[in-house]
Predict the structure.
Amino acid sequence: MKSLRLTKQKKAIIDLLSPRKDHPTAEDIYSAVRKLIPKISLATVYRNLEIMAAAGIIMKIEHEGLNRRFDPDTSAHSHFICVECGIVEDIPFNLNNESINQIDSWIGKRKILRSRLDYYGLCGVCANE
Amino acid sequence: MKSLRLTKQKKAIIDLLSPRKDHPTAEDIYSAVRKLIPKISLATVYRNLEIMAAAGIIMKIEHEGLNRRFDPDTSAHSHFICVECGIVEDIPFNLNNESINQIDSWIGKRKILRSRLDYYGLCGVCANE
DNA sequence: CCCTTATTGATAATAATTATCAATAATAAT
DNA sequence: ATTATTATTGATAATTATTATCAATAAGGG
């Protein structure tokens, strides 16, 4: 009977990620959490981020060209990715379900678990250049 | 005046990719094209795939957990990714623009270049297990 | 044909993530 | 409580996909 232990490492990672809106990478989180637990290992950070993502506590987000990032907001929402500077912004609207309904007849035996709608472009700063 | 030369390597890669519906990786294309040009280098395959994707001749597709794949179909279309076996299927419907319109007021100075709507789930085969 | 420049092939380098494994910490059993 | 059991950690090695390097080759223009 394996139990999931909420270690001080996991707690520190969650506490650190929770308030953030900037979708940090594992490396970002590592350098931040090191201020609290200097001896924490990068592997532990990766490991626990994956475990917590699998448990649905946080969300793993992967986008073209960028390395993996993590988001404390697990609700269905879209991201805007600047192709110039790589910033990832939340889009404050939910993905509408029309496209999902549209493909109903195509689905057949397939089972759709989730969808992802993302936007790529230039952020406010990069658009002025 | 740099010109883009359609070398026999590029031609072989396109000819090979064009009829395929299975979204092969660079490695897949490499092993296939080696039957035509045994001495072709993996680097050449990667290089030319990137060049042709940048030129808009083919499309580069990147999805969570999978390595980069290439698609001869450059039209806007969604993909269905099986989280079990990793197969990438085309969804024969276009992304509707409603979600894009919905975020108009949020856009501000941002410039949206493209969007991507993908579905994750279990394919017909994997759903029966 | 020669000259210039793009492209190739071979290989080294990079970089992010994952695996390994002995040491440690947490919980459970006695 | 003390010991036994099991999960987790930290350190580091391994992996793997992709990118960079660079001398050699090939292509096309004049």
Observations:
- The interface with chain B takes residues 60, 62-65, 78, 80, 82-83, 91-93, 95-96, 98-100, 102-103, 106, 108-124, 127-128 of chain A (CB under 8 Å).
